[in-house]
Write a structure and sequence with these properties.
It contains five helices and 19 strands. By secondary structure, the protein is an alpha+beta fold. It has a six-stranded antiparallel sheet with strand order 10-9-19-18-15-16, with no helix packed on it. A five-stranded mixed sheet has the order 12-11-13-14-17, with no helix packed on it. A four-stranded mixed sheet has the order 6-3-5-7. The two termini are about 35 Å apart.
Amino acid sequence: MGVLQRFEKRLENLVEGAFARVFKGVVHPVEIASAMQREADAHKSLLGGGRTLVPNRYIIDLSPADHDRLAQYAAPLAQELAQTQAEFIGEQGWMVYGDVIVEIERGEGLDTGMFRIAAEVYTGGVDDGGDWQQGYGDAQQAPTSGGPQGYGGYGAPVSGTGAAPTDPYANAAPYGEGYNSPISSPTGAGNRQARLIAADGRQFAVAVGSTVIGRGESSQVRLTDVGISRQHARLEFDGGRVVLTDLGSTNGTSVNGARVNAATLQHGDVVQLGTTTLTFRLDG
């Protein structure tokens, strides 16, 4: 069972059978967890010895409606999100400073179903400015002094290394319908940016690494099309090129009208999944 599936199972237990009712019509926690994983991947820093440092602090801005609706579950939800992110980071073999911290805040001006995520490497103490905030230590830790040269204990601040930015949302774009991940975020070497554009104008950024397209809640690019399988296809982006692979979908995947099992996408290619048409763009 994957990280997101374990997270969803814990959520079902958390709300005691009211899972579908509680999260119907509002932003879904699995979407937040999936977006947090993409944020970690998009903000990796390479250290000496082949190690990789990723953000340990994630500030989630919810729309006022979602914030109010999830209020009674907010504290345990923040804890579950922190645990899930720590598990994901640990499985990737990445490092963090201290605990993984999740803060959930009210984001004025966001429509229902929309949210923003700011991710940062945070080396100070736990900031108590957020509405709901939880930390979880289950990933490889950077040391508590002398810079990121080894592994240390959970939750300890690192001396003389960085600080929280004044505006953590300075580069954050909204997630939600039409905003699968921030288009403004760099996606790879040379600052190339890959994206998919739907016929109705929705745009989905493709982050470096693996991106699953499908109808299921665990898909990073989620499309509500009954002709699309829950996990329909996968995109692999290395910062320079994108390879599309069909995941044994029921109705298949086509590129420029030809059915494919796998194909390297070129700028302007048209991808067909079910009744959904997506135009591929590679900029930079």
